[in-house]
Amino acid sequence: MKKGEIYEGVIEKVEFPNKGYINIDGEKVIVKNGIPGQKVRFMINKKRSGRVEGRLLEVLEKSPLEVREPVCNIFPACGGCMYQTMSYEEQLKMKENQVKSLLQAAVGEDVDLHWEGIHGSPIEFGYRNKMEFSFGDEFKDGPLSLGLHKKGSTYDVLTASDCKLVHPDMTAILSCVLDFFTELGAVHYKKMQHTGYLRHLLLRRGVTSGEILVHVITTSQAQYDYAPLVSRLLALPLEGKIVGIMHIINDSLSDVVQSDETQILYGQDYFYETLLGLRFKISTFSFFQPNSLAAEVLYSIVRDYIGDTKDKEVFDLYSGTGTIAQLLASVAKEVIGVEIVEEAVEAAKVNAALNGLTNCRFIAGDVLKALDDLTEKPDMIVLDPPRDGIHPKALPKILAYGVENIVYISCKPTSLARDLPSFLAAGYQIQRTCSVDQFCETVHCETVVLLSQQKPDDTIEIDLDLDELDATSAELKATYQEIKDYVLKEFGLKVSSLYISQVKRKCGIEVGENYNLPKSENARVPQCPKEKEEAIKAALEYFAMI
Ligand SMILES: C[S@@+](CC[C@H](N)C(=O)[O-])C[C@H]1O[C@@H](n2cnc3c(N)ncnc32)[C@H](O)[C@@H]1O
């Protein structure tokens, strides 16, 4: 196979996030952006140390997984919603398998992920509360466009007048803004030349409140009267309500949305959203989970995984606007949030006051440095780092606290897969894992892991000669290992000796006196889940022990 050669083949599997594999005469080629089962034409574009990569040129035949018609008019050129022709159920199945196998490969086959499945978003479309659209043109010197970049292109922008990831209010605003500047003959910003005016349209819309913020981001290279735009926007027949219109000037070379100067043209520069009964004030640049309803699912899982925070000191690292901290604060002794964006920290403080919480503290700073200055010691830690995961130098500082329970929320499974082995090496065990799909139709997926380690004073006294000890019991018919093997073979479940002893005791079978009893009175002993209990009981029945 040589660079530039064109082949046809069927995508056999897709690894997270979008790495498809095609077998051509025994040679594996990685082709991104496809769906398993699609027959595609591709061109070899990279060959490096035995790895061959191809660029997808055309889908020749649909995959059997593609059971519906595209839902928007810029598919597949946009590439944002690669999975939109699959049913949502199939999307979830695929993401679940991808995340599971990625994590399993990272920690080793013998480590139980205690996988609990994937949770879908409560709504499949119109779920985004924030969207950044770019100004540009669809082809060189074409008419002004406003929307999303063409897949693989930094320049060509497709007008997203029909995007199904956002509420129709947002597409109505997009069309209004595009019409306004097209009529004026305003030109879009060109990155390479650093000339032009229009850069981005940033929209935020509270899913629960319907409150909308509109931000037009431009350079300072032209001047227009925005009053007619404000009138036109306010006259739109929307389901929600525009509460603020901003003009942001950004003359930086970097293409990210940021502000050199912000002018409020109408209303205010914040809106409110309510999650799990708490109210949050969100401003232009504060991080907030982009799918509010799925964030409620995510946060409920975090609350469940972290367990009882009563009278505990909790660290919420990478705290954003302090949502998690506030959800855990009601019973905790104190929650300390650490967040690098000062604006988000200020918003977190305002939000905590808004929600009547006095036991949350928010510190602006890099987790890497801020931990050095904190004198408090946490009892439990929640980690929700950005896509790159935890800084390698911050990880040992986090592990050094030696807390019993850590909940790690990850928006990029490959970063989680990189970080997990360090937790295991430090003595943590994976207690629970699941995924939450915040980004329907796209390749992305959120994952939550509960990592636990037993503190010395919670040590469970286990007689290592358990099987021999039990062998003296009249009721014994099978060893612990035989029960484990039976449960794994018949139910596909791994069970510990601890769980077996708990079930045996429940069934009135005598086990070693000290077995399964914690040393200290207030120690936490993991309890056998219902599903495993049933499987162990079946084994006990099989071995005629009950
Ligand atoms: C995935 S968000 C999580 C926010 C929050 N937990 C939530 O659910 O809304 C990650 C956050 O980490 C912040 N961040 C990124 N790098 C950081 C660092 N080195 N130290 C502290 N915060 C950081 C980002 O600004 C962002 O708010």
Automatic annotation (TrEMBL):
Pfam family, one: tRNA_U5-meth_tr
InterPro entries reported for this sequence: MeTrfase_TrmA_AS, NA-bd_OB-fold, SAM-dependent_MTases_sf, TRAM_dom, U5_MeTrfase_fam
Presence of the UniProt keyword S-adenosyl-L-methionine in the record: yes
Keyword Lipoprotein recorded: no
Signal peptide limits: none
Documented EC number(s): 2.1.1.190
Residues involved in S-adenosyl-L-methionine binding: 289, 318, 339, 384
UniProt-listed GO biological process terms: methylation; RNA processing
Active site positions: 411
Record-annotated TRAM domain positions: 1-58
Keyword terms, alphabetized: Methyltransferase, S-adenosyl-L-methionine, Transferase
Gene Ontology MF terms: RNA methyltransferase activity
Gene3D superfamilies, per database record: 2.40.50.1070, Nucleic acid-binding proteins, Vaccinia Virus protein VP39
UniProt-listed PANTHER family: RNA M5U METHYLTRANSFERASE (PTHR11061), TRNA (URACIL(54)-C(5))-METHYLTRANSFERASE (PTHR11061:SF30)
Family: Belongs to the class I-like SAM-binding methyltransferase superfamily. RNA M5U methyltransferase family.
Protein name: 23S rRNA (Uracil(1939)-C(5))-methyltransferase RlmD
Encoding gene per record: rlmD
